[in-house]
Amino acid sequence: MDNKAADEDQSGKQMKNALLMPVDSAVRGSEHKCRVCGAGPLSRWVHMPAMPLTEELRPPDYGSSPFLADIDVYRCTACGVSQTVGERDLSPYYVDYGYTVGQSPFAARFMQRLADTVRDRFGMQQGFKVIEIGSGDGAQLACFQRAGAEVFGIEPSAELCRVSRARGVPVMEALFMPQTAALLPEAFQPADVLLMTYTFDHLPDPSGTLEAARRSLHPGRGLLVLEVHDLSRIVERREYCLFEHEHYTYWTAETLRSTLANSGFRLLTTELLPENERRGNSLLVAAAVMDAAHSPESEVLLTEAAQIDYDAFQQELEQGIAALDAFVEAEASLGRTIAGYGGGGRGVMTLAAMTSAWRIKYVCDANTGLHGRLAPKSRVPVASVDRLTQEPVDTLLVFSYGYMAEIREAVEKLPNAPQRIVSMLDILK
Questions:
Q1: CA distance 347 to 344
Q2: Which of 128, 246, 283, 311 sits CB 3.0–4.6 Å from 124 for a disulfide?
Q3: How far apart are alpha carbons 315 and 234 in whole angstroms?
Q4: How far apart are CA 332 and CA 328, in angstroms?
Q5: Dihedral of CA 177/182/188/190: which sign?
């Protein structure tokens, strides 16, 4: 092993040592207080054994075993918020975090539409100040720059911070904690917009985060924009792959509205963009500081996509996994070869729970940073989309279903394109 590989191996071991020391995470949920309201008791309703981290993809010759631990999700009987218990130090993990959707035309359109809509619907003036927590590679903030805003990001990944600065988006390298708000540049105190897209559910202290957000926003025009995974849709679609170690909380429109209200925010809309313009399983809301001038829509719709039967869902989850395994086995029994599409979190977690993942030859993805690596636990290799031409398969199972239309369009143009392109959602339902 060369010095670089040895350093990487040692770094990985140190990361796992940190991750393997959760704060009381092995204690039953009933002995914990709710991380949102501080009450309880908590009741477990999801159990997924021996699951990996979504981004711990490693080269084939990587020596250390992947981090694996059970994922248990509990519901607070007082406030209704679903959550994990305990807390892991994920800061070493996020340093190398490289997830980005920058290669997707659909994602690019979504981000620009979001920036333009926030500006236009809420009357933001030229030079309005936008802070994004979990700003990634700066792509979303660059859209706000084009919409006339001054922007600043907070992002724990060193690599994504480098990319962000290269595209002209200033960023502070940090994992956001409530006290981080005090470190913001003076020019952004206060801010007009505070943005968290698929970040809020990664933060272990939701109430503290919302309190810091309220203090950071302008009291007269401050706007909070949150995008989280919609728990009602997760249940309706059996999307077990969205239960991750990286997620501390899981939200419905109603639990989000209630928690925002308890933290001094008024929910303005749950339809900031129409569903066909949002990413897969996106609950996208805007809220205002209570005294701000922004007015809510005449009627904020809080109808859940499905009434959640918490007692029955574990069986539903297991039936969904079994359906995916049955699909793969049926394809194999007919002599069909199978590949996957989507090496991000959905693909990693879907494969990790399956017993038939070894039958999937590879997973292709447009993100070049994932190529040549193995998905943790399942060890399915991740390759470029060109692999479908070089090593063709009969069936393509799409994990990144939110981009299904553009994936289908791109794949069908390839030489030796798969005969069947199937969304995992069509199997899970």
A1: 6
A2: 128
A3: 14
A4: 6
A5: positive
How many Å apart are CA 233 and CA 292, to the nearest integer?
A: 31
Q: Taking a C-beta distance cutoff of 8 angstroms, is the pair 272, 117 a contact? A: yes
Coil, strand or helix: which one is 29? helix
Query: C-alpha angle with apex 338: 337 to 341, nearest 5 degrees?
Result: 155
Separation CA 52–CA 89 (nearest Å): 15
- Inter-helix orientation angle 105-121/404-412, to 10°: 150
Report angle CA 214, 207, 75 to the nearest 5 degrees: 145
Model confidence pLDDT, tens digit, residues 169-190: 999 999 888 899 899 999 999 9
pLDDT tens digits, 187-242: 999 999 999 999 999 999 999 999 999 999 999 999 999 999 999 999 999 999 99
Provide the pairing of β-strand 249-250 with 82-83: antiparallel
Q: How far apart are CA 322 and CA 335, in angstroms?
A: 20
Do 115 and 146 meet the contact criterion of CB atoms below 8 Å apart? Answer: yes
pTM for the model: 0.88
